[in-house]
Amino acid sequence: MQTLRYWDYYDMTDTFSELYDKSSKKESFSHLYDIITSRKNILLAYRTIKSNKGSKTAGTDKKTIVDLKKLSESQIVNEIQNKLKNYRPKKVRRKLIEKENGKWRPLGIPCIIDRLIQQCFRQVLEPILEARFYKHSYGFRPLRSTHHTMARVQFLINQASLHYVVDIDIKGFFDNINHNLLMKQLWNIGIHDRQVLSCISIVCQLYLTNKEKALQKRY
């Protein structure tokens, strides 16, 4: 798999595996910031988003991955490390995407630097969270797809004689999630690095502020 090859190339496989193993044992983590801001992790994040089509979509600063490609690896690393010393993400560009039912879903497009920073955090937090997640949860998780979901459903039908499926859709779930509870849950899972939690909290506050402004414009 391409992602695993990237991990090996930047010598991060052992680091992520160790985070997963420690989290499986319910250990806590208080020094994640150093891993997140390490040169290897930043360059891995850059390599990952470079292969993402969304990196060609501009945020509010009008910049894309093309602008980052003009920088050297050292310049990219320094840019991310310096920005995170006093992190203040830029505003997210809002775009409406039409759904199959004719309704519209708001999509937030972050600036390319913020997207790179998000990827740096994701790479380190994901193995920790994955070790704690329910094994039969399949949505928006690595190495899982609708095929795995269908296989599980088929297993339950054949082995447990279960023949009913409950389809639940929570309207505006991500727009209304309680970020305070989310932050507490991160702590409960073992994320005890206050620098990391502070950066995440800042992003949450920006999201809430932008949401309130959007609602004020609407009404």
Structure explained in plain terms:
The protein is mainly alpha-helical and 219 residues long. 58% of the residues lie in helices and 5% in strands. It has helices at residues 2-9, 13-24, 33-36, 39-50, 65-68, 73-85, 112-130, 146-160, 173-176, 179-189, 194-218, and strands at 93-98, 104-109. β1 and β2 form a beta hairpin. The mean pLDDT is 88.
Keywords:
58% helix; mainly alpha; 11 helices; 219 residues
Order of H and E elements:
HHHHHHEEHHHHH
Backbone structural class = mainly alpha
Strands side by side in the biggest sheet:
1-2
Radius of gyration, CA atoms, in whole angstroms: 19 Å
Poorly predicted parts: none
Sheet with the most strands? 2 strands, antiparallel
Helical segment tally? 11
Percentage of residues in strands: 5-15%
- Principal-axis shape equals globular
Averaged pLDDT: 88
Instruction: Give the termini separation.
Output: 48 Å
Q: Got a strand count?
A: 2
Helix content: 55-70%
Could you outline the blueprint of secondary structure elements for this entry?
Layout: H1 2-9, H2 13-24, H3 33-36, H4 39-50, H5 65-68, H6 73-85, E1 93-98, E2 104-109, H7 112-130, H8 146-160, H9 173-176, H10 179-189, H11 194-218
Antiparallel strand pairs: 1-2
Helix pairs in contact: 2-7, 4-6, 4-7, 10-11
Short description:
The protein is 58% helix and 5% strand.
